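Hi R.,

As promised on Friday, here is the backbone we talked about, encoded as structure tokens. Could you run it through your design pipeline when you get a chance and send me back a sequence?
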């Protein structure tokens, strides 16, 4: 039985469509609407970065404080894109050039202060409520930027339950213990079983210690985080929470209204039952990048250009893929050396490689709509949204078998093709050889168009929405508040 009118305070550093640097924003923006039919109403606390108050429009102040870590601050309530927002207006922390975390290629020098303030305010709202008489039943904190919310709740003696979701354990919010007093954290709890992390403080570790439950964004990633290869030094803490039954792996979904090929204004529309217009989008994509019609699959890459995302593996294997008949379009930005190497690849194969450095949301929709394949060779991937969008748009995912990629793509083995459960290609040896073998398999299957179209149909019908996952969150929230 669904809860009735229960309240969630979601605390995060970004939220689509207002501000986005990665998949975290998509999750924070999409989960509330999936939870609401299940009886859980969410308000999202996030920083009022430059321009956000103007973008949201009408707001009202529901909380204020004279001095939060160096300056006055208030929280303003408003609605945007169907979301209930609480914007932390603290100009001394957030009204500055650059992105949420970086300016001119470098982290903001006081990121630990900025997001400790976000966490502290989140705890205050949870404990004392707002001037419009709203108080949450549970707090949902996201990643290191909100990692201190469970800690501030604990140190205040609050019994309000909290869930910390780890979207990427590689980012941990590290700062020195000399900052504890300034951030209103107790120096007496600076030891390995609480705040200390190799002589420093990790906001992510603190949250993992103090949250009622820790969740990750896929079941496989939850397991991986207990291992030395994936735990980034926190595998002991993750294992401890697992052994207590306090670790959950809940797959992300995607917003199937935003990502809907039947209504997407950026493309020629199609759907799972009538996918014929997929060909129209494919031709348009080839024309847009002035590429020749390939004899093999047209692949796309939509990613940050980093080592984690396996861009070096792509650079090693794409020439073989192209010479075997494939073509590729890349959209992304990141490591300058990868940007340069990709530009050289595009110059070497000008009629088979399209490249756009940067990020372009409408273009990403056109890429998924036109692609035969979407390539995701990540060395680790907590959940991944790219492969889910690929499934939704019939761009067959070719992915490394890690994290949520492993949980969401069924490999096109002969058995899975025969029983019609396959939805893509996976490779377990996450190196250039493993990627190359998977790319070769995709080229071979593409020559059998009947099998390829069957695989595409299965991909288009794969579940990618928030339905099942939102129910898991709702059940977790209910358990913790009962």
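Update: got your reply. Pasting your designed sequence below so it's all in one thread:
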């Amino acid at each position: 039985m669904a809860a009735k009118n229960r309240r969630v305070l979601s605390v995060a550093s970004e939220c689509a469509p207002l501000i986005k640097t990665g998949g975290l924003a998509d999750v924070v923006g999409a989960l509330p609407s999936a939870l609401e039919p299940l009886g859980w109403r969410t308000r999202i606390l996030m920083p009022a970065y430059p321009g956000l108050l103007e973008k949201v429009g009408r707001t009202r102040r529901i909380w204020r404080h004279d001095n939060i870590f160096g300056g006055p601050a208030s929280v303003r309530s408003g609605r945007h894109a169907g979301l209930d927002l609480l914007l932390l207006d603290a100009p001394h922390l957030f009204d500055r050039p650059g992105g949420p975390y970086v300016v001119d290629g470098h982290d903001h020098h006081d990121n630990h202060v900025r997001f400790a303030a976000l966490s502290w305010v989140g705890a205050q709202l949870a404990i004392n409520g707002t001037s419009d008489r709203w108080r949450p039943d549970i707090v949902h904190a996201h990643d290191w930027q909100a990692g201190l919310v469970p800690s501030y709740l604990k140190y205040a003696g609050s019994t309000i339950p909290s869930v910390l979701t780890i979207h990427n354990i590689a980012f941990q919010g590290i700062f020195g213990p000399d900052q504890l007093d300034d951030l209103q954290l107790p120096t007496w709890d600076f030891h390995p079983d609480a705040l200390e992390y190799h002589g420093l403080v990790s906001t992510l570790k603190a949250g993992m210690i103090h949250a009622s439950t820790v969740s990750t964004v896929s079941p496989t990633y939850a397991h991986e985080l207990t291992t030395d290869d994936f735990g980034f030094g926190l595998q002991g803490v993750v294992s401890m929470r697992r052994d207590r039954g306090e670790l959950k792996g809940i797959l992300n979904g995607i917003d199937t209204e935003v990502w809907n090929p039947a209504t997407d204004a950026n493309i020629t529309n199609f759907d799972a039952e009538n996918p014929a217009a997929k060909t129209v989008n494919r031709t348009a994509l080839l024309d847009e990048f002035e590429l020749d019609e390939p004899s093999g699959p047209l692949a796309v890459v939509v990613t940050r250009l980093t080592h984690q995302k396996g861009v070096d593996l792509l650079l090693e294997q794409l020439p073989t893929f192209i010479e075997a008949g494939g073509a590729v379009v890349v959209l992304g930005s990141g490591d300058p050396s990868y940007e340069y190497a990709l530009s050289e690849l595009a110059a070497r194969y000008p009629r088979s490689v399209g490249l756009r450095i940067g990020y372009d949301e409408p273009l990403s929709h056109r890429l998924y709509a036109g692609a035969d394949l979407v390539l995701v060779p990540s060395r680790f991937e907590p959940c991944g949204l790219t492969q889910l969008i690929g499934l939704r748009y019939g761009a067959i995912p070719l992915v490394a078998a890690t994290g949520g990629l492993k949980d969401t793509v069924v490999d096109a083995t002969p058995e899975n093709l025969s029983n019609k459960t396959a939805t893509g290609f996976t490779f377990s040896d996450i190196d250039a050889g493993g990627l190359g073998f998977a790319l070769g398999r995709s080229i071979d299957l593409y020559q059998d168009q009947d099998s390829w179209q069957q695989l595409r149909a299965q991909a288009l019908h794969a579940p990618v929405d928030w339905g099942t996952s939102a129910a898991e969150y709702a059940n977790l929230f209910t358990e913790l508040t009962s």
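One thing I noticed while checking it: The chain has a mean pLDDT of 96.

Thanks again,
M.
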